[in-house]
Amino acid sequence: MTAPYACQPEESRGRHWPERMSTFRSPWQRDRDRIIHSSAFRRLKHKTQVFVEHEGDYYRTRLTHTIEVAQVARTIAGVLGLNADLAETVALAHDLGHPPFGHTGEDALAALMEPYGGFDHNAQALRIVTKLERHYADFDGLNLTWESLEGIAKHNGPVTGPLPYALADVNAEWDLELHTNASAEAQVAAVADDVAYNHHDLHDGLRAGLFTEEDLSQLPVVGEAFAEVDALHPGLDPMRRRHEALRRVFGVMVEDVIAVAQNRLTSLQPQSAQDIRDMDGPIIRFSKPLYQNLKAIKLFLFQRMYRAPTVVVERQRVTEMLNGLFPLYLNDPSKMPEHWFDAAKAAGDETGRARVILDYVAGMTDRFAIAEAERLLK
């Protein structure tokens, strides 16, 4: 039984291209399944989270990160009486638009695309699910419901200011009400993203040797977690100690989000999903004390992991690859596969051609981008 402020399947605004209702699945179960079976979802297996995909088998990839986000989103949504299928759908789709090499790749493509309408991975995810997945007889894209598209567009909050062209194009076809909050389910997916990466980046950074457990003992929340494990399990094997401590950090974040949401929902008494959208700010968020503690953890990760010397060297290397490949394809689209070459020729002006090339490059996995750079740039 879902709460009155949850998105209700029978009240969905439907799909851009009308379809017969499924006999066995709700609209958002169907959206979820289409995402899981999409080409873009499969490619997340070989896309960077922090470490480039070939650097080690144990590090999170964009796919394993996405699965972790979906698990957290279902848990929180279920406790709060929200529609867990919609929360999971937005979580599974939230990173579909990420290019190779993670945020480094996004930064590089954003700079390259500045003259042609910009680049943003959330906007690209929308472009993928509305245009670029081409499997169905009756439409391009996955023909997701309005609520799923809304969640992808604004799970991080209302979207204001100049829009990346990919988002502007989708919004022109179907108004996603970008000025309002997203549904509570989409907000859950956004917070689940924070929970997942704050947890697993600590784990991956330790495995990579970028910092030690002793370094983490100085951080809020994390230090207390290690102290609790040491008190309960003195002399525990180091790997088990690490896991036990970080699972407690994970639990602190999830329980904090749930407690804050329950308090706010009780206080504000929303009676519909639209009440959530119309609120002055998100209903799903961390408490202020934990938010401040997480800022300290994120600063530590930024300094010791995201900008670690070895990571910086790799960031420079992959940026050079994209900076080489993009103008190469722009000047000579015949270097791309035939159907992409045809699309670039049909695009008309340079802006249109650049956007076709962006779709091609952004869709690459790490390993394919590296192989193409070695083939074409040597």
Automatic annotation (TrEMBL):
HD domain ranges (all copies)? 62-198
Please give the SUPFAM superfamilies that the UniProt record associates with this protein. Answer: HD-domain/PDEase-like
Q: Which Pfam families match?
A: HD, HD_assoc
- Which keywords label this protein? Hydrolase
Question: Looking at the record's lineage, which domain of life comes first?
Answer: Bacteria
Q: Does the keyword Hydrolase apply?
A: yes
Is this entry keyworded Hydrolase? yes
**PROSITE patterns under this entry?**
HD (PS51831)
Q: Name one GO molecular function term.
A: triphosphoric monoester hydrolase activity
Per the similarity annotation, which family is this?
Answer: Belongs to the dGTPase family. Type 2 subfamily.
Protein's name according to its UniProt entry: Deoxyguanosinetriphosphate triphosphohydrolase-like protein
* Species of origin: Paracoccus litorisediminis
Q: What is the lineage of its organism?
A: Bacteria, Pseudomonadati, Pseudomonadota, Alphaproteobacteria, Rhodobacterales
